[in-house]
Amino acid sequence: MFKKLPGDEAQHLVTTTPDTAVVFRPAVLKTPAIVTIVIFTWRLLAGAVRLLWRYPIASLVAVTPSALSWLYGWQWGIALLVLVPFTLTAWRLVDRASFLRLVGWRLLAWWRRVWIYRRHWQPVMIVSGLGRHLRGRDYLPRLVRVTCNSWADLVMVKMLAGQSVKDWSDRIENLAHGFGATSCRVTIARSGRLLLAFPRRDPLAVPLPALPIPAVASVGPVEIGKQEDGTPWRLKVHGTHVLVAGATGAGKGSIIWSTIRGLLPAVRAGLVQIWALDPKLMELSFGRDLFDRYAADPAECADLLEKAVEIMQERAGRFAGVQRNHVPTVDDPFVLVVVDEVAFLTAYQSDKGLKLRISAALATLTTQGRAVGVGVLAALQDPRKDVLSIRNLFPDKIALRLDESEQVDMVLGDGARDRGALADLISPQPDLGAGIAYTRLETSPEPMRARVGYVSDADIRDMVAVFTADTLPLTVEGA
Ligand SMILES: Nc1ncnc2c1ncn2[C@@H]1O[C@H](COP(=O)(O)OP(=O)(O)OP(=O)(O)O)[C@@H](O)[C@H]1O
Predict the structure, then answer these.
(1) Which residues form the FtsK domain (predicted)?
(2) Less packed terminus of the chain by CB within 10 Å, N or C?
């Protein structure tokens, strides 16, 4: 309220340098007290109206006990003060979900707005360079609204005129630390307005066990883990191609196995075939019985990829002019080509002939396969362009823990790290960071943080056991 006015600065300009003959003192005009009183009264009234307008319920809660005491006696005011928290606690115990939706998150948002964001807004904006202090006056972006959900505070901000989204995305670390959060995600709400997400807690801090094998045979997005907001992480594999990049031990195996696990009933029903390429001879050999085709030797891998291209071209010829999208059936199942450590077959392949054949087949599959029901799920450790030149042919990408910050944009596309995909900062400790990933889907530029379930060796053995014993559920989606 007691902001410095521009005139206040002038009072301190008293003289020039001591040895000069010219001394000047700016004229200071005394403002009559009544003008100051009117200004402050006006500000007080405007503030009260604004408060009522923005927080009608909170204002009502604050005003009602005083009004009751004044009208009917203090006992009524006290009774209300006891009754309201009692009722709210009872409501929370009986129906937590409706309490949180209607009251809990609003109260929390109000409290966090006042205690965290309003209190620290001015220093954080000035120090981070998002606000300006010019001639005694602060020019700050406006804090429009704070809302809360189960995992984060969502802060709507009106940028200063002339600011760009990049000015904000370059300062996500300043914002996160300034407001006491571990990270900050920036999204555009509408022209001139941004939505900043500050996670309050990390629902992905604890490893997730492997998800149960679904009861229904479906090729639809496969549930493989949990997203940061607590909702299931569903990975689409039919109708797209997915590239998974991560340093060694980041959890690439978990993504591959969780996807296979989710597709298992559909494989049993004949709607999906999984073709596995395992040049490292480690990851996929474990579940060989689950795959329709399996290759480890580079020459066999080249043959297998060319076979997939053949099926793709045969289907393309048959579907031309008849159907534009593939519907999985027993006659034309969805073929998922899973490649573990694709760079072994491309960049690190010493046989030039094989390397050319494999790269050409992969490029053909990733450019033409999705409409005819042939998809590629490829994992790699090193996302540099020379390691995998066809990186951009994968519409959907997943970045697990990466070694360097520059690799994030290589995998997820330009600007992904600035928007909050801090894949290089994921903990290398397996229980804290393995399986945590940022994904960027073809349909959305915003990176999403999630953790995949951990499919252990015992889980894979169980999968093979139920699959070979034919004890999987065989309910087909939509049947
Ligand atoms: N989803 C997960 N949740 C928790 N821990 C995990 C998860 N996935 C993997 N881990 C842990 O990380 C270790 C390494 O995982 P994994 O072998 O899948 O990584 P990778 O990226 O495939 O490594 P590499 O490139 O060396 O094959 C596992 O032994 C396990 O302890």
Answers:
(1) 230-409
(2) N
Q: What pLDDT was estimated at residue 4?
A: 54
Q: Is 252 annotated as a binding residue?
A: yes
ipTM here = 0.95
316 is an annotated ligand-binding site residue = no
CA–CA separation, 436 and 182 (whole Å): 15
**Domain count along the chain:** 2
360: domain CATH number is 3.40.50.300
Report which protein residue has its CA nearest ligand 1's atom 29.
249
261 plus 126 within the same structural domain: no
Q: Give the CATH number for residue 175.
A: 3.30.980
Low-confidence ranges of the chain (pLDDT < 50): 1-2
- pLDDT score of 1: 44
**Cβ neighbours of residue 189 under 8 Å, at least 6 residues apart?**
156, 195
> Taking a C-beta distance cutoff of 8 angstroms, is the pair 260, 294 a contact?
no
Does 253 appear as a known binding residue? Answer: yes
| Amino acid of residue 400 | L
Ligand 1, atom 17, residue with closest C-alpha: 249
415 annotated ligand-binding residue: no
The ligand 1 site (C-beta within 6 Å) comprises 207, 246, 248-254, 283, 381, 430, 434-435, 452, 454
Tell me the Ramachandran region of residue 75: left when phi exceeds 0, alpha when psi lies from -120 to 50, beta otherwise: alpha
Ligand 1 centroid to Cα of residue 56, in Å, is 51
Quick: pLDDT tens for 86-95: 888 998 899 8
